[in-house]
Write a structure and sequence with these properties.
Layout: H1 14-34, H2 41-47, H3 52-58, H4 62-81, H5 91-108, H6 110-125, H7 130-159, H8 168-179, H9 181-185, H10 194-211
Length: 219
């Protein structure tokens, strides 16, 4: 089973990590705006006010950079979720907390999550060369491991009688359509109040649990 641990290939000294993150942040914004195929390393270098040589110091190709952005987007999701997995509360409350943590994360890391979505499409359509395609398959396994975190809690909440569904795969896909929605339609305004963003997250969670037949009053 895939895990959230990063491979040795992605580990660097802390000062270099900061530099790589700056590159990834610029790349994520470029990939989000123009897509993988239309984005060049020159554009990414311009976005971070740097040189293409600096990018090549860390990455051998645009594909390698794209895959690191994808992996980092997934790691951000795992990190948001992990503190909630062992909460000593009823499964439905743990599920709601996990759903809200995911929505908050995708809003905060929207460009990275858009790259994850692009990676999913690229795997589906086979548009990466063989070596990179193999890594997309590994990243898909990482996404599956992330979804399993939710699947486990869904099963517990169903056993408790708080939600209902017939097919776990359909239930998970429906829930993720709901909580991934802000990646497509929501971008926080500059200076937007935190409580307004929280309200967006709460609404997404409400719709997600209602899809699962949860009928109790939400706070």
């Amino acid at each position: 089973m895939a895990t959230a641990a990063r491979s040795t290939r992605y580990r660097r000294q802390s000062d270099t990590d900061l530099s790589r993150m700056e590159i990834m942040e610029g790349a994520a914004l470029c990939f989000e705006a123009r897509g993988y195929a239309a984005t060049s390393l020159d554009e990414i270098a311009a976005r971070i006010t740097s040189t293409k040589g600096r990018i090549y110091h860390h990455y051998g190709s645009k594909a390698e950079l794209f895959l690191d952005v994808y992996r980092t987007g997934m790691m951000m999701n795992f990190q948001a979720l992990e503190p909630l997995l062992e909460m000593k509360v009823p499964a439905i409350e743990r599920l709601k907390a996990m759903l809200k943590a995911h929505v908050r994360c995708v809003i905060r890391t929207k460009a990275f999550q858009n790259v994850v979505g692009q990676g999913v499409d690229m795997l589906r359509h086979g548009t990466m060369p063989a070596n990179e395609h193999a890594e997309l398959v590994q990243l898909a396994e990482l996404r599956d491991a992330y979804a399993e975190r939710f699947g486990t809690v869904l099963e517990e909440a169903r056993t408790d009688g708080d939600i209902t569904y017939n097919n776990i795969k359909i239930a998970l896909n429906s829930v993720f359509m709901c909580i991934n929605g802000p990646i497509v339609w929501f971008t926080p305004r500059k200076g937007q109040a935190d409580h307004e963003i929280e309200a967006v997250a709460d609404e997404c969670v409400l719709y997600a649990v209602r899809l699962l037949g949860y009928t109790a009053t939400m706070p």
